[in-house]
Design a protein that fits this description.
The protein has 76 residues and is α+β, with helices and mostly antiparallel strands. It is built from two helices and two strands; from the N terminus they run E-H-E-H. A two-stranded parallel ribbon has the order 1-2. Strand 1, helix 1 and strand 2 form a beta-alpha-beta unit. The N and C termini lie far apart (32 Å).
Length: 76
């Protein structure tokens, strides 16, 4: 039962978020063979001024063993 949580800078439209969620679900189905009904995708808006504090430090720098695709920056 994969659940994917995506954090994005604020400002994306609901249509953009829905399209992203649909494409992520498709990628998960194709990559690991999960059924569509088993996949959930959450999208959370994060203010750019809070990115380092709320996302980078705790989730990227703070959990390096969980990161399979590293960002091309060290801190925002």
């Amino acid at each position: 039962m994969p659940h994917i949580n995506v954090k994005l800078f604020t400002g994306r439209s609901e249509q953009d978020k829905k399209r992203l969620a649909d494409r992520i679900a498709l990628a998960v189905m194709n990559s690991i063979g999960a059924s569509e009904s088993s996949i959930s995708v959450a999208i959370e808006d994060v203010d750019p001024d809070e990115w380092t504090e709320k996302v980078y430090d705790p989730e990227i720098a703070g959990s390096p063993s969980l990161i399979y695709k590293k960002p091309g920056y060290e801190r925002f």
